[in-house]
Design brief:
By secondary structure, this protein is an alpha+beta fold. It contains 5 helices and 6 strands, in the order H-H-E-H-E-H-E-E-H-E-E. Strands 1-2-4-3 form a 4-stranded mixed sheet. The chain is globular.
């Protein structure tokens, strides 16, 4: 496993931030690559009636564009919320996109989204506090009033980059991001 520590204040490249040997955690079994495929290859996908790839988490098309912009800017992105749950079988559509971002990269990540036409959403201070995470930056997604992208400081989650693994995104398997490691499986004593 690569060394996670980075004292320069920059987010480490994905290849240095987590190991990628977690084939069993990549995507639900209906999307998991065949043994002859590596995780870097996109699995064979058939189109469904709603024109989304089978086995790929339902999402607004602009969300993929946002993730592409962040990864192109070398920002470490850790999936959170509905995305890891999807790996465990939850079929929840991706409406609130939650990404953990290292604290030192949070403002830069938000700026990247602003430059790619994902405006900030400012919540009133007296109402709607239940709808925001303290310290998170929320961005609107064009073409929808429901979908939001929430950039959450990594420190707020209590998760460390050393506790993540590199995986294909649940909605864009060609993009590699980080995900919290699954909990260890504990067997009952014999």
């Amino acid at each position: 496993m690569a060394d996670i520590e980075n004292n320069t204040g920059e987010s480490p490249p994905l290849s240095q931030s987590a190991h990628s040997g977690a084939d069993e955690y990549a995507l639900p079994s209906k999307v998991r690559p065949e043994p002859s495929q590596s995780l870097n290859q996109q699995p064979n996908q058939s189109k469904t009636g709603n024109d989304s790839a089978e086995g790929v988490q339902d999402h607004h098309p602009s969300v993929e564009r946002a993730l592409e912009a962040l990864t192109a800017a070398k920002i470490t992105v850790v999936e959170y919320g509905a995305q890891p749950l999807y790996r465990f079988g939850s079929q929840e559509p991706l409406v609130l996109v939650e990404w953990l971002i290292p604290d030192e990269s949070l403002i830069f990540a938000s700026q990247i989204l602003l430059e790619h036409d994902f405006p900030h959403i400012l919540f009133p201070t007296e109402h709607g506090l239940w709808d925001r995470v303290q310290g998170a930056l929320t961005h609107a997604v064009e073409g929808t009033e429901l979908t939001r992208i929430q950039l959450v400081p990594l420190s707020l989650s209590g998760l460390k980059l050393s506790e993540t693994i590199e995986v294909p995104s649940t909605f864009a398997p060609e993009l590699r991001i980080l995900s919290p490691k699954p909990p260890p499986i504990h067997a009952f004593p014999d």
